[in-house]
Design goal:
alpha/beta; Rossmann fold; seven-stranded mixed sheet
């Protein structure tokens, strides 16, 4: 097999791996300013997608321009999430250089979609492909690709610890080559249950003191995690932004089987109050004594930029960050400086600001535990800030590990 790394190599974002110029694994985008797309050119016979996050699916519709119609293989939740994200991208950037596709390409995605469950082998571009539950977000998959001689495991993003939505991955299929994410290879977290308890008790304390809590959260996964915790601890909770649509998507009958406990998510949705944003509703909610879970998770925009200015002046209020804040984002600026850019001005925030690492990725210990069965396999480290450093660390532990560069082609197997 020849593996060409078109994205996600020694970086996080725009994941794309081309196998033998024929089978494409993921085709994402980096949504920075300006956005970045996979390098080189890809004209695959088929596409297989690991999960529905923008950095893995964001560029997919662009593959369907012209006469190209490669089938796209994924789980049902991933298909639904990819369509939701693509529509959102079009609404934000359609007609500009920031958007690599049009409504026509988006419509074609439904025509070429092929959905599969976990553990059910299927054929794609002449390879046998099997999905395994990756425990990252609903529908996320490890992708096992076999050409009859070499077995390639593309881990996608994964988590080894149980979350509210999902159980941690337990799949360890035999593989000769493992292309492994390394997002949090340098991070060790406290147990998840400990983080969840601290988060809920902090919110409860703020509410008891008469304050309002704003929880900026990613729409996919993190919003629903926060909702479930609010329901478990009986905290009043409003949900605003794209997370409401994603919650509805997860609870559709065709997607419920991909949840750890569908009844838990239904209870959380029944406990929450969903916001439509009409007639000054957000301003009234922000003035209340409540919890508001809202996009965007890094304060790039969205309803969060109504709520944060409304609560920023009073130290009794709280802003509880539950996701990674990338360098250069307003969320990172808030954490680092106590100030946040709002409407062209950088304003001080007197409200308490806290951060909880509710990542859906495995940490260092999780990565090492996942890779332990693959001591006789070749490991290729991707999707991280320091892939070469993680590969070097693995070599000291006796693994055959390296970190391909962006655009590099690596030959593996026979």
């Amino acid at each position: 097999m020849n593996l060409e790394f078109l994205g996600g190599a020694r970086e996080i974002g725009r994941s794309a791996l081309l196998v033998d110029d024929s089978l494409l694994l993921d085709f994402g985008m980096d949504s920075g300013n300006p956005p970045q797309f996979p390098v080189g050119s890809a004209d695959p016979d088929a596409v297989v997608v690991s999960h529905g996050h923008l950095d893995h699916v964001g560029s997919l519709p662009s593959l369907l321009s012209g006469d190209a119609r490669p089938p796209i293989h994924w789980t049902q939740p991933t298909a639904d999430l990819a369509m939701t994200l693509a529509r959102d991208t079009l609404s934000l950037h359609g007609g500009s250089y920031n958007c690599p596709f049009t409504e026509a390409e988006l419509a074609r995605m439904t025509q070429v979609s092929r959905t599969h469950g976990y553990g059910q082998p299927f054929e794609a571009a002449g390879y046998e492909v099997t999905f395994f539950d990756a425990g990252h977000v609903p529908g996320s998959a490890h992708v096992l690709v076999s050409d009859g001689e070499t077995r390639l495991l593309y881990t996608g993003d994964f988590h080894t610890e149980d979350q509210q939505l999902l159980a941690g991955t337990s799949a360890r299929p035999d593989a000769d080559v493992v292309v492994c994410e390394s997002t949090y290879a340098d991070t060790t977290r406290p147990p998840r249950a400990e983080l969840e308890r601290a988060f809920a008790e902090s919110l409860r304390q703020t509410i008891w003191e008469g304050g309002t809590v704003v929880v900026p959260a990613f729409a996919i996964g993190r919003t629903q995690e926060a909702m479930c915790l609010c329901a478990e601890y009986d905290l009043e909770c409003y949900v605003d932004g794209m997370g409401a649509r994603v919650t509805d998507l997860f609870l559709r009958p065709r997607n419920r089987a991909f949840l750890r406990d569908p009844a838990l998510v239904r209870r959380a949705a029944g406990h929450a109050r969903f916001v439509d944003g009409r007639d000054g509703q957000r301003e009234r909610i922000a003035a209340g004594n409540t919890v508001i879970v809202t996009t965007s998770g890094m304060l790039h925009g969205g309803p969060a930029m109504t709520y944060v200015p409304a609560v920023r002046d009073h130290p009794t209020n709280k802003i509880a960050m539950v996701g990674f804040q990338a360098p250069g984002t307003p969320g990172r600026e808030l954490l680092d400086t106590g100030r946040v850019p709002i409407d062209g001005r950088v304003l001080p925030v007197s409200a308490t600001v806290e951060s909880y690492d509710f990542s859906a990725h495995a940490d260092r210990e999780g990565l090492l535990a996942f890779l332990e069965p693959y001591r006789d396999s070749r490991l290729l480290c991707v999707h991280g800030d320091d892939c070469p450093g993680f590969a070097a660390d693995l070599r000291t532990r006796g693994f055959d590990a390296s970190a391909p560069a962006l655009g590099e082609t690596v030959t593996v197997g026979e």
